[in-house]
Amino acid sequence: MAIETLVLGAGQEVGKSCVVVTINGKRIMFDCGMHMGETDHRRYPDFRRISHSGDFNNALSCVIITHFHLDHVGALPYFTEVCGYSGPIYMTYPTKALSPLMLEDYRKVMVDRRGEEEQFTSDHIVECMKKVIALDLRQTVQVDEDLQIRPYYAGHVIGAAMFYAKVGDAEIVYTGDYNMTPDRHLGAAQIDRLRLDLLITESTYATTIRDSRYAREREFLKAVHKCVSGGGKVLIPTFALGRAQELCILLDDYWERMNLKVPIYFSSGLTIQANMYYKMLISWTSQKIKDTYSTHNAFDFKNVHNFERSMIDSPGPCVLFATPGMLSGGFSLEVFKHWGPSEKNLVTLPGYCVAGTVGHKLMSGKLTKSDLGPDSEKDIRCQVHQLAFSPHTDYKGIMDLVKFLSPKHVMLVHGEKPKMISLKEKIHSELGIPCYYPANNETVCIPSTHYENVETSDSFVRSCSNPNFKFQKCSSVDTCNSTSTDRNLMPELQVKDERVAEGILVVDRNKKAKIVHKDELLLKLGEK
Amino acid sequence: MPMDSQWREEPFSIHTLSVMRSQIINPSTPEPTLISILQALTHSLQSTNQTIHQTHHILKLLSDLAAHHSSISQLVLDSLRANSPDPSSITHLAVEGTVESLHAITSILDEGLVSLDDSLFVSLCFGPNVSARIWMLRNAGLRFQVRPALLLGVCLGFTKDPYPYVREASLEGIHCLCEHGVFEDVSLVDACYGRGVELLSDMHDCVRLSAVRVVASWGVMLAASNADMKNYLSNEVFAKLCSMARDMSMKVRVEAFNGIGKIEIVSEDFLLQSLSKRVLTFGKTKKTLYQSTSEQFVKLATSVAGALVHGLEDEFFEVRKSACQSLCTLTILSLEFAHEAINFLMDVLNDDSVVVRLQALETLHHMATNGFLKLQEKHLHMFLGVLVDTNTEVRYAERKILKVVKLNDRVLFKSSIDSLLENLVHYPQDEDDVLSALSHLGRNHKKYVGLIIKEIFEEVEAAFEGNFEFNSVRIAALLTLSISSPILNGHIGSIPPVMFSYAVTFLGRIYCAFSDIMDRNALLAYLCEKSRSTGHSGGDAPNLATIEVIESQITREPKEIANYKEEQQQPANNEVIDFANYILAKLPDMWAMIQSGFTNKVLQSLRCWKEELTTMMASDSLGCGDALAFTLQNLRIFKLLAQVWQHLLPEKKVSSQRAATLESKLGKLDKRVKELMSRFLGFSAEEEITVLELILVTFSLKLCKAKICSSNQTFKKLNAIYLQVESLLKESSTLPSNFIVELGKLLHESSTAINEASSRNPLPFDECLKFFSFKKFMFHGTIRHSNAELSIPNNDLEHPFPFVSGLPVGIPCNITAYNVSSEKRLWLRISMDDGFVHHVFLDLDLFEGSGKVKKFAFVAPFYRTTTKADSVTLKISIGLESLFENACPVQIRGGPKRELVLLCTEKQVYLSKVDKD
């Protein structure tokens, strides 16, 4: 028996996550993402490798989507509506709710703004979502007679899940993206200790070790507080889902505690809609929000108001959340043009900005007047604060998870190759677990567990149900316990329970295996 | 009462039993019916024709009866007892059935009644019934008093059970046993700990949770039982617990941090590692403890890495709180770690959970009372921001810290005052406590008040003259601050006396800020007195020029200050003695406070006084040195006693001084008490008894608390001192204190008992210690302080004395001895870093001068110059042989016959080798 893993995307790269795992004859596709950096056919995973005939319904047992980011769900409408897969698709409730928003937003940007040929239509998205079966956390689903799946909380974004799958005795976990340290609005990943044959984990930050979240929060709050108490305006360009809510909770909480009265604004649109979803999806948020939502829903921001375009030039301090995140256009750039010239104001930028955007230029200090369009006359003098909030786990988190789960094999996906190599070495040397990092379109085979059912004799069952332990004094020279190297003068007391070891497997003439108690065997042998 | 006819049939059918049950659980069943049921049940219990099954039902009904109707539960118990004179037979009755019946019967009976013989316990545990096994393991230790050794064996074995709940119950059993007794067999302790460590990686959360408990409790015990490997093992336990800080189960994480908070020794490197997620490279610990296995060291360091940081940023407030709490104890272990931890605690002050913020503040408060809280300017924003927190309790906790913290920077002090004033503006309801905080800040930071008094005075004066809008709360606060600084000693320093007059007008408002030390009338008297005081400015008009004087005084050399004070404070002599006696008179009252558990509060006031005394001593040039030294000595002893006493108090939950430090505290106490006896002259007989009593208390504490190997010797010494006290008592015909009386009884008993037994069972010294109370011990003119000054001319690190290997070297010493009478035996003590000690006898007849001050120049010979090193550092000091102790001389060849009490601090002498060519 073996587990066969075919990596269709996110092998030694970040983007278009798609891993097809075959366990004991069952085939599961984990994630179906698109690559945001590619424009040709390489944008989607190479689905033909699953089935050359295109009969995906027979080739796959199910598709599992871990969360709503486009590099994990982006290719799904294409796969179902264009390629014709119509089997079961599983994702969590929030992912099902928010994926269409993301897909539709992306489709609009692609088609309406860039004028590209559309890969799938709005109807495709709707049709695709109809095929989705939504799951709750830790809800075990029997996909078919042999295949069992169960989602675990992964942090990262709302609704993100790690998926456990079991076929026969072989068990694996596919993590998707996850976060091992909690946010304000999301919890840390949570999973049971399982007996895994294979763990497929993301490795985006395979070599980074991040400092305490508190320090980053403190700096952010200090910068914002300083700016508004000096009468300045704070512009927070951010993506509508996830970071916006995180930062807003942080600010709202601080405002409450420090009794600040400066208004916080959301530019309308996707953010408002997203907030509505967050308010409904409380059970997927962090423990603190779950604990307090009966008295106060944390996404019911007390100090937050809607922003009108006419308010851009109104006097007085304020904080504004506006999309898109990297000042690449849209409303956030428009506001930036108005507020940028005053040194009293502050702009916060996300940790990562794509090269070529205004955000990237601002961060690297190369912003010129001409970047802001022909009508801009003033120099940009505002303060800039870089945010370092990432919803991915760091090196330590990956190691902690691998250590906790102690699987028989580990596979790395969703990361850059040099970092994967470094992490692989660590996992191998520190934890002693074999580790793989296949490239795209490569297949890796690993052996899997298989248990055999055999008959047992009554006396063996009886002896097993009664406790039977012994104490043994042995000098620790015999034991290969590494922690006791310095204590070898002392005989060690050890507890042994050898009930099961007293069983002996015998195969009779009909090739039937049976376990009998050792005394029984002696008796039998004695008879003959 | 005739038995109800309906319960006649016997044995009862299931139907009858269920009718009975519904009668029992119905709360409105009349009592007579219940009693008749009870009678029927107890009657049938006695008849022999019951099956095991029926017995069980009957017992269950009886327990229901007792549980549902409290009015007749006593009756149920009585009838059960009456029907079987031997209580163990009832148990037996039940045990023959099932564990369920045992459960039923134990719920009726009181704990003490049920006893279970060991074989029965074992047979029940080893039966195939799993739930019975769990029940037995859970209840064995608590209810049946099974022999601990047996129970431990059984529990240890069941940690291998395939059922997780059995493993959990057995681990819990092992954990409980650790709390109940001390186990001699190290290998057994090791085995328990080893099982715990192994099960830390169990599949089931509940087992891991119990395993963490076992590792924490048995790990500490293992470390304690293994003196040479204590540090190594403690580090290992710490690492094991830290590795559980990243468990997926919240409860396990909470327990891990609870365990971490119990560890008594951890090397500093590991502590610092727990605050960094990156694995640090270390020198010290690695070299000393892990020479051979640096790989293993890295492994341990990896599991420690960032554990506390993870705990502090955990998703669950329970974990964050527990992590904060563990910092309480860990920060005491290392100053550097404490400094590092403050940075993280400051961030926790921004936590969204009030419980966690409060715990963080509590931890900071704990650090402040122990003197480990060193605030820096970068902390100001977070730390003082808490004063405008919306939560009342959080603000209160923050002010509690401000009341005890020692700020070492003028900027910090000023910002704290400003933030408190802001607090007052935002939350006027906090007024009382803010004023109290200001009064404490003023008392603790006299010199900083002196630095800002000018601004304060101007503002207050302007307000009183009506130049500004009269903001009365603010003025009250400023006045509180100004008048509080001279409250602990007499000098008003640079504070204009008119401030005290102003304060009188606010008396009603500010008196509660001082309620911890004086009532309203006392404050009024104090204010009136101070407002009349002329200070050293010599007039009503405040002389603000003195501020500059004070400012410069802080930076001046101590000697200059001495001169300065001499000029200014001629008539202060009596005032100093008054102050000393004021403190001494307070001590007995404070002892009462310690008895009732307010140790931290007491320690805090002691610290203020101590600082005050040390500054006064440094500037003393008059004859009050004796009074100050005497008071300081008493304060030190009092402080140590208070700290040690915490371990005697019944509810010592998270006592600040852990058992590990107890021994060192006792050692210090011993030294200080002996100093009091030897270094002060002129005690009356009564006073001498008081001092000897303190020595007796110290010995008793040693005997009952610390695991000192030489307890036999301590006991002998105790006996000797007691005899001395007894004879003194006879001579002086004073009444012995309660403590002495009780101690006498105890010693008498022990001498009549067999020697063997007394060494086995320690005498109940803690019983008679309860009778001890701190006596009022005033300073008077005849008490003199023996003191010595030692100077080695022309020697420092750059100008060492030369020596030739193998030849003796002479060290010129200038010695001045104060109040050392000629019958005393004085020694020069020369020690080297490797533990070598050499004593030189000083003949007092050779000293010049007579009476109080004796001077002597002397060349001390030093012979041990055969060392290979090129340079040698010696430590020299002067010691006085303590003559009062004549038992068990500490014989060092050619040296003093008794313990030495040092009269001066050790001086370093540098020697360097000269080449023979």
UniProtKB/TrEMBL annotation, chain A:
<protein>
    <recommendedName>
        <fullName>Cleavage and polyadenylation specificity factor subunit 3-II</fullName>
    </recommendedName>
</protein>
<dbReference type="InterPro" id="IPR041897">
    <property type="entry name" value="INTS11-like_MBL-fold"/>
</dbReference>
<dbReference type="InterPro" id="IPR022712">
    <property type="entry name" value="Beta_Casp"/>
</dbReference>
<dbReference type="GO" id="GO:0005634">
    <property type="term" value="C:nucleus"/>
</dbReference>
<dbReference type="InterPro" id="IPR011108">
    <property type="entry name" value="RMMBL"/>
</dbReference>
<dbReference type="Pfam" id="PF16661">
    <property type="entry name" value="Lactamase_B_6"/>
</dbReference>
<dbReference type="InterPro" id="IPR050698">
    <property type="entry name" value="MBL"/>
</dbReference>
<dbReference type="GO" id="GO:0016787">
    <property type="term" value="F:hydrolase activity"/>
</dbReference>
<dbReference type="GO" id="GO:0004521">
    <property type="term" value="F:RNA endonuclease activity"/>
</dbReference>
<feature type="domain" description="Beta-Casp">
    <location>
        <begin position="244"/>
        <end position="362"/>
    </location>
</feature>
<dbReference type="GO" id="GO:0016180">
    <property type="term" value="P:snRNA processing"/>
</dbReference>
<dbReference type="InterPro" id="IPR036866">
    <property type="entry name" value="RibonucZ/Hydroxyglut_hydro"/>
</dbReference>
<dbReference type="InterPro" id="IPR001279">
    <property type="entry name" value="Metallo-B-lactamas"/>
</dbReference>
<dbReference type="Pfam" id="PF07521">
    <property type="entry name" value="RMMBL"/>
</dbReference>
<dbReference type="Pfam" id="PF10996">
    <property type="entry name" value="Beta-Casp"/>
</dbReference>
<keyword id="KW-0378">Hydrolase</keyword>
<comment type="similarity">
    <text>Belongs to the metallo-beta-lactamase superfamily. RNA-metabolizing metallo-beta-lactamase-like family. INTS11 subfamily.</text>
</comment>
<keyword id="KW-0539">Nucleus</keyword>
<feature type="domain" description="Metallo-beta-lactamase">
    <location>
        <begin position="15"/>
        <end position="232"/>
    </location>
</feature>
UniProtKB/TrEMBL annotation, chain B:
<feature type="domain" description="Integrator complex subunit 4/Protein SIEL C-terminal Ig-like">
    <location>
        <begin position="791"/>
        <end position="913"/>
    </location>
</feature>
<dbReference type="InterPro" id="IPR057412">
    <property type="entry name" value="INTS4_C"/>
</dbReference>
<protein>
    <recommendedName>
        <fullName>Integrator complex subunit 4/Protein SIEL C-terminal Ig-like domain-containing protein</fullName>
    </recommendedName>
</protein>
<dbReference type="GO" id="GO:0005768">
    <property type="term" value="C:endosome"/>
</dbReference>
<keyword id="KW-0539">Nucleus</keyword>
<dbReference type="Pfam" id="PF25458">
    <property type="entry name" value="INTS4_C"/>
</dbReference>
<dbReference type="InterPro" id="IPR016024">
    <property type="entry name" value="ARM-type_fold"/>
</dbReference>
<dbReference type="GO" id="GO:0005634">
    <property type="term" value="C:nucleus"/>
</dbReference>
<dbReference type="GO" id="GO:0010496">
    <property type="term" value="P:intercellular transport"/>
</dbReference>
<dbReference type="InterPro" id="IPR011989">
    <property type="entry name" value="ARM-like"/>
</dbReference>
